[in-house]
Design a protein that fits this description.
Elements: E1 26-27, E2 33-34, H1 35-42, H2 54-57, H3 65-80, H4 87-90
Antiparallel strand pairs: 1-2
């Protein structure tokens, strides 16, 4: 686990607070898909493959790393819009 900030740490996974799990955070404006599904499908690999499922793409190093890193941040911004109730945990 990456430990950032001060105790108590927030575990951002399905084992911790599920609101902060990329697998559980779903974005209505993107067909109700999870952040993880959208992020993994956006990866482009050396062989040109893209649009893969999260299981197929997870762990693979994309050639469009900067693009998907920006997308990942944008997806969390979209998810958090209007959800001020949990902002206190991430500040």
């Amino acid at each position: 686990m990456i430990k950032h900030g001060s105790l108590p740490y927030l575990e951002c996974s399905t084992k911790g607070d599920r609101r902060f799990s990329a697998f559980c955070a779903r974005i209505d404006g993107r067909g109700g898909k999870s952040i993880e599904e959208i992020y993994q499908a956006a990866k482009v690999f050396d062989d040109g493959s893209t649009g893969l499922t999260w299981k197929e793409a997870k762990g693979g190093v994309p050639i469009n790393y900067e693009e998907v890193a920006r997308l990942y941040s944008q997806l969390w911004d979209e998810y958090s819009d209007g959800k001020n109730s949990f902002c206190e945990y991430v500040l």
